[in-house]
Amino acid sequence: MRFEHLGAGPRIHPTAVVAATAVISGDVEIGPDCQILHGAVITAEGGAITLGSNVIVMENALIRATSTNPVHIADHVLVGPMASVSGAVIEEEVFLATGTRVFNGARIGARSEVRINAVVHLRTTLPADTTVPIAWVAVGDPLQILPPDRHDEIWAAQRELDFPGYVFGLDRETPDLMVQLTERYGRSLARHADDRRVD
Known about the structure:
InterPro entries: Transf_Hexapept/Carb_Anhydrase, Trimer_LpxA-like_sf. By secondary structure, this protein is of the alpha/beta class. The chain has helices spanning 151-161, 163-168, 177-189; strands spanning 2-4, 11-12, 17-18, 23-25, 28-30, 35-36, 41-45, 49-51, 56-57, 62-66, 71-73, 78-79, 84-86, 89-90, 95-96, 101-102, 107-108, 113-114, 119-120, 125-126, 131-132, 137-139, 144-146, 196-197.
């Protein structure tokens, strides 16, 4: 299913194959020989999404851009089943395995691997040829790649990256943070009420 969102519609190269149950919404450009499989969602929420050539987006993966963080996925990238990429740049020949999460402002260097259920946190840069092991977390600047049982170290680096401030423009210490966050984000997402199906 293809939708026009905020006045922009998907542009899909004629050699790309998009499954009938995939959702492509807004300012999305899909390059030659891409494969977008069943249940994948590629949604431009105010920022553009570009996929180079030979990108594979597998079942139930999510790719989301924001007005602050567009998404660019370079050539020969595989986005695994149930993986999530939000507002990030993925360079060429990267493997994002099943269930990986890549957050806003992150950059994954060429030929890197983010293995099953691993996380690349917001504003984190992986140099080329980096591997994030299964279920580990890449976070911070300078980069740390930590196992999930080292929560205190992950949180120390993550706190400085300021997820609510960077993504939603809200101070983490706001007493009613979730009230403000859900109301503000809800108003933004409500813009989908005017989407128009184009296929």
